[in-house]
Specification:
10 helices, 34% helix, 2 domains, five-stranded mixed β-sheet, Creatine Amidinohydrolase, Chain A, domain 1, Creatine Amidinohydrolase, alpha+beta
Amino acid sequence: MTVDARPDRAGRLRKLQNSLVPQSIDALVVSAPHNITYLTGFVGTAGLLLAAPQQLALIVDGRYALAAREALGTEAVLDATVEHVERRYDLTLGEVITRMGLRRVAFDSAHVTVSNLYAWQRATPGVEWIPREGLVEEQRLIKDAGEVEVFRRGGRAIGRVAADLRHIVGHRRTEQEIAAGIDAAMIAAGFSGPAFPTIVASGPNSAHPHARPSSRRLAPGDLVVLDFGGVLDGYCVDLTRMAAVGPVAPQANALFANVRDANAAAVAAVQPGIDSSAIDAAARTVLEARGLGEAFLHATGHGLGLDVHEAPRIARADPDTTTRIQAGMVFTIEPGAYVQGIGGVRLEDDVLVTTAGCEVLTDVPRDLLVV
């Protein structure tokens, strides 16, 4: 059966517009670029979307006027207008709000700076500005059929990159050379570019969870963390695999085995209806039982989408960040352990939550790659 990969942007916009009515909000200013893309298809580094229950306005400057009209020139969003910024965004936003007769306007306080808010307030005397967070991100949590198909293709593509690692990682190469090789392999696999700066961390550098590639050459006995991700059709996938240069010390082998077990336990725990913290606990319990609790220095995972880090956060229980897991969510599972003098290990996979559990999107070998 063919999956319709066309985004239902009209449905996304209607859902957002309908959510404003019970909150007595006249409109929402959407300012985060990826939220605007999710709702309208417009891609740009600047722009504002003013969404009212019955009206939509995409505010852009001259660089993006044509692109905005093209994005909205589909049957799904023909009712949206493009407003051209002549001088400043705040002034044009104020003019549109005044023309629409809006009085209670919400903004996403997670994405709006204080200076921008002050400018908007000056341009709209008499308007009440209401902080809201996550109105669009809540919709982005659950992926639709088209998004799922992109993630499946992304999982297969990143798997092809992983298969090339044995030809890219070599004990005479520097971390920077290996990172460049991985980036080239991602382009060859069909990604438009890296989702984040590729991490290659060898030997003592592997004990730093987010080390950046250096001029260090791989040496015998090194553990090597290989963390990379690509952007496919705007969506981010993320994978971490481990390599070793020749035989490694028994403690390093044990560290790898323990993290692999933690990864498997967390994947097995994924199912709809549980709290995100339960998945973190599944991985953390394995490592704590083996004396590595304090070596696990980060959360177990993070959501994936148009951003490489988005909701849900798979971490310890926290009333502000713990999320109820639902079918259609996509996130990473990436436990790790980092021990000075031995090195670090992280194994990361991307999973799609299903009604029965989860589908591992990055189903590629997790074995220690010995070069």
